[in-house]
Amino acid sequence: MPTKDIANLYKPVLQYAQRRVTALHQDQTVREALDYLRGQDLGEKIVYFYVVDSDNRLVGVVPVRRLLMSRLDITVADIMVRQIVAVRASDTLLTASELLLQHRFMAVPVVDTERHLIGVLDITLFADEGSTLARQHEIDSAFQLIGVHVSLGRNISIWSSLKDRLPWLFANIAGGLVCALILTFNESLIQAVTLLAMFIPVVLTVSESVGMQSMTLTLQSSHHRLSWRLLVSLVRRELPSAFGLGLCSAALVGLIALMWKHNFAAAAAVGAGLFVAVIVACILGVLVPGAIKLLRADPKIASGPIALAVADMVTLLLLFTFARGFLM
After folding, report:
1. How far apart are CA 238 and CA 145, in angstroms?
2. How far apart are the first and last CA of the chain?
3. pLDDT (tens digit per residue) in 119-131
């Protein structure tokens, strides 16, 4: 299909769906299904077979490999996947493309309002539009990471916008107030050692950057089913990198602090605080979006503000804890 024919991603998906669909019946045995398929002119490459009931309603999907490897005497209903992801005939091509990208499917069925199977949309339709879809996905992720859902870009209601934005703005304000309290409690230490105040922005920036990197990797994994075991695995995977990043950052910043003020104790406090803060920020970058996902909330909306606010508070606490240990 020419690229110009699918340039408008907001057209109804039914315009581009393959209307000729070879579907299996849930009551067929595997033997009967294979015999039936041999008599069909399948033509194109097929990855999934869709399963319907007696009323042609979509009830499941069977990967080709599973069908070929199953016993011949069991029914199609016994081997089909019942959790179906489908698009409605009235959905746009953009909606279908986002669904395919999110689930990494090679095809998606098209159904009407009563779940009748009326077509199939293949991933190859988007081959010429791949760069466009990739850019849109990156833009969406960038907005979601700072607490703004992509739907706000298409929503003209100011009240809906405020409802989605304000909670995460309040989270940032609360985090900032806690950081202000931490600074107030350590005011005498800051006045005695001005080097600490000079390097607070550097320490916060580095820890936030590492936390954002870890959070991005976790959000990529959130397309799949998350569990506490997977989160532990992600933390273990990130820890060696966090250790290396923390060590290099702490050594560089600590050396700069030492050369600047020639105060070894203060420079050591800055370096040690940054080292531990980077490791903690890495762990938070994994656990915060993972915990939000497990709590059945959208991690792409809330993770950025919450993770960064917590990382800032923990970083300041660590910095002043090490400063008191080295300087007092």
Report:
1. 19
2. 73
3. 998 876 655 444 4
Tokens of 32: 């009967």
Closest CA to 250 of 278, 274, 283, 279: 274
Phi, psi of 84 (to 5 degrees): -105, 135
Cβ-proximal residues to 198 (8 Å cutoff; 6+ apart), any chain: 260
Tokens linked to 278: 């980077």
By the 8 A CB rule, do 53 and 101 touch? no
Could you tell me the CA-to-CA distances from 310 to 16, 104, 283 in Å, in that order?
A: 47, 33, 11
Q: In this predicted model, what pLDDT tens digit does every residue of 234-264 receive, in sequence order?
A: 888 888 989 999 999 999 999 999 998 888 9
Rg (CA), the chain: 27
Q: Please, what sign has the CA dihedral across residues 223, 224, 227, 233?
A: negative
Which of 309, 292, 287, 303 has the alpha carbon at shortest distance from 170? 309
CA nearest to 202, candidates 73, 316, 60: 316
Domains of the chain: 3-132 (3.10.580.10), 158-327 (1.10.357.20)
How many residues are recorded in the chain?
328
Q: For residue 121, give both structure tokens.
A: 């949309």
